TrEMBL record:
Keywords: Signal. Residues 39-68, 699-720 are annotated as: Disordered. Residues 1-35 form the signal peptide. Gene3D superfamilies: Galactose-binding domain-like, Single-stranded right-handed beta-helix, Pectin lyase-like. InterPro entries: FA58C, Galactose-bd-like_sf, Pectin_lyas_fold, Pectin_lyase_fold/virulence, SACTE_4363, TAT_signal. Residues 26-164 form the F5/8 type C domain. Pfam families: F5_F8_type_C. Residues 700-720 have a biased composition (Low complexity). Coiled coil: none annotated. This is Coagulation factor 5/8 type domain protein. Residues 47-56 have a biased composition (Polar residues).
Amino acid sequence: MPAVGPPHRRSLIAALVLALAAALLALAPATRAEAAPTLLSQGKPVTASSTENAGTPATAAVDGDNGTRWSSAFSDPQWIRVDLGAPAALSQVELRWETAYASAYRIEISQNGTDWSTAYSTTTSTGGTETLNVSGTARYVRVYGTARATGWGYSLWEFKVYGTQDGGPTLPGGGDLGPNVHVIDPSTPGIQAKLDEVFEQQESAQFGSGRHAFLFKPGTYNGLNAQIGFYTQIAGLGLKPDDTLINGDITVDAGWFNGNATQNFWRSAENLAVNPVNGTDRWAVSQASSFRRMHVKGGLNLSPDGYGWASGGYIADSKVDGQVGNYSQQQWYTRDSSIGGWSNSVWNQVFSGTVGAPATGFPEPKYTTLANTPVSREKPFLYLDGNEYKVFAPALRTNARGTTWESGTPQGQSIPLSDFYVVKPGASAATINQAVSQGLHLLFTPGVYHVDQTIQVNRAGTIVLGLGLATIIPDNGVTAMRVGDVDGVRLAGFLIDAGTVNSSTLLEVGPQGASADHAANPTTVQDVYIRIGGAGPGKATTSMVVNSDDTIIDHTWVWRADHGDGVGWETNRADYGVRVNGDDVLATGLFVEHFNKYDVEWYGERGRTIFFQNEKAYDAPNQAAIQNGTTKGYAAYRVDDSVTTHEGWGLGSYCYYNVDPSIRQDHGFKAPVKPGVKFHSLLVVSLGGNGHYEHVINDTGPSTVPSGSSTVPSTVTSFP
């Protein structure tokens, strides 16, 4: 019996050790899953009760720069509030006060930005740098000052919030591209039949919900005629256009609209080489239809069969070996490309950085040509590296001329699809925001997306790329998307469609008061379109607001609908199209039309626009409806009187007041008369005598009245 005892005791001890080890192992995964507190506030949207002046904006307190600061008005109380974008478990707040600090303040937190609770308070602060331990879960955090230590306002170098954000399970990157992305290789059966099937659905579906992208793997495709309808993208998956060759045609015509191409909107052709069957490809489009990174091994015809009307388009980073036949295209912009020639001019043809472009001849022929584009960066695109999907983000260029791809490997960065959250219809705004907070880029697959909260893009370098004209609709009057005052965000390839409840804004690039320098790595907005009405009633006070300095707007159509469903002077009310507050903003290919008041307003310094196309709102009921104080009508493009430096090339505005043809506009353009404010190649046109302009810019330039109904432009070659 005694000999049995020790083994039993050893077994018991061993069992206890094993049990303890198992318990520790069970705890270990939970311990590993706990994220360390991180800085959540940097670059996030921030507002304040007041600012002392433009040099001390609220954004300076969350920019990570100890040399910039926010300061308030000289009164009590004052506050500064940061939106973390999603609920967070808070752990710490760091305040780095300037000499004008708060002797008494509260740290308050909120889930909705309206109902606040106190996480910390003091009446004995001595300023300096304060590190405060706080707890609670909140999306919004604010410093609420109740007593100042000096006669100045409240002033913070930095306002930092730390904690953890757990939006649920970690979202995966990558994945399949969904049923409306048609990936094709040379061995795919029935390619022509699939192209024809989608075209039949999309040819006249101007306001339909179908969205499609045809992505062709590198290789050669013979005998295809890819007719491209509404909300359809055709693109190659090579790193360069010549990697994917179509011996055939990529065609846009206007048979669906009796040979009139003025409503051929919302489509694109990208990153392909095409060898046209009869030597010339046809691309008869109007607004919101981009032709990017294409190689046409022949000529390109921009008019519909029969040479019917067409009203404008855009080419970039493309090579056309033969001649571009402009024919009936009223206006067009070609950037950083190479062409074999150009056939004629109608109203307003503009070129920058384009090899083979005709010389400036404005007002006749109506060519405006810049040898180089001051700053450009091409649109990101999806491609295949072997069997792996990646997104290529082209490098920034200054004084650009010609394509990025003809002379060798394109310069830029390749990002694996695993770094993207692949957004599919049904995804919520909360999930999309979680993906961005998690560090993922966004790839929207073709579809229509309703969002009940703003999509917040606050991380530097984030790419938001849409396929197949993916469409975002804000519900309940929210802003569809906001970008932080951070470097290098790229928005590309999607449509924002206003919701039925009025949104104050639809797209904001940078928060109010943004002041950071982004010259080395600007935010770009490319093939991003905005629509109010047409697909149904929609309203928005201001469509696009650009607050961030150095932003590049590269091809946008911002459109208050003049036809379709939900259209009327008040039904799809939208007072302002694009408002630019940031400095050093460049617009290359700016199309803005039909707003109830100003189509474009520019407040930032050193702004530049290369090509502007505009129509004033058709449906103004009478002169009184557009009366602007003592001024008849709102200018299509207005530079604020405070601006000292601004320049524009190739800008046109057209009126067609068909409800009341007696309406008069004092001018199409309004700008201060200062040495640094310059315009080149301006024109206004009365379409068929339906309304008229008295002048082109300010009180300069001839009236359109003498031309009667003959649609002869009134021009100003240079101003002042």
